[in-house]
Amino acid sequence: VQLVESGGGLVQPGGSLRLSCAASGSHLDDLAVGWVRQAPGKEREGVACITRLPPDTYYTDSVEGRFTISRDSAKNTVYLQMNGLNPEDTASYYCATKGGWGLCPRDVSDYDDWGQGTQVTVSA
Predict the structure, then answer these.
(1) Which end of the chain, C or N, has fewer beta carbons within 10 A?
(2) Is there a contact between 100 and 57 (Cβ–Cβ < 8 Å)?
(3) Could you report the per-residue pLDDT of 104-115, keeping only the tens digit for each?
């Protein structure tokens, strides 16, 4: 599956962004889709994940209540709505997919396919 992220940018603390992950070559309804971020000098961190249909969603503790992952089946796109952004959210954000049972992997290295990433910078 080919994945293309978009929607990153520069935003002030407290602001919002919506990231998009558009897929081709496979339907996202059949896959688990996650958002993974990596800040300079830090390890990759799984931020959110949505399982294959019927979906369950998972979030890392630091974004729970601020970020929402969702899927638009008709557009074959997964979104990450990010509200209440703070400087600690600054990172490159990648979408990634996992096939098989379509469950969210515990380890981000277990995702099968990755997009090229989109940069999110939170700064005043």
Answers:
(1) C
(2) no
(3) 999 999 999 999
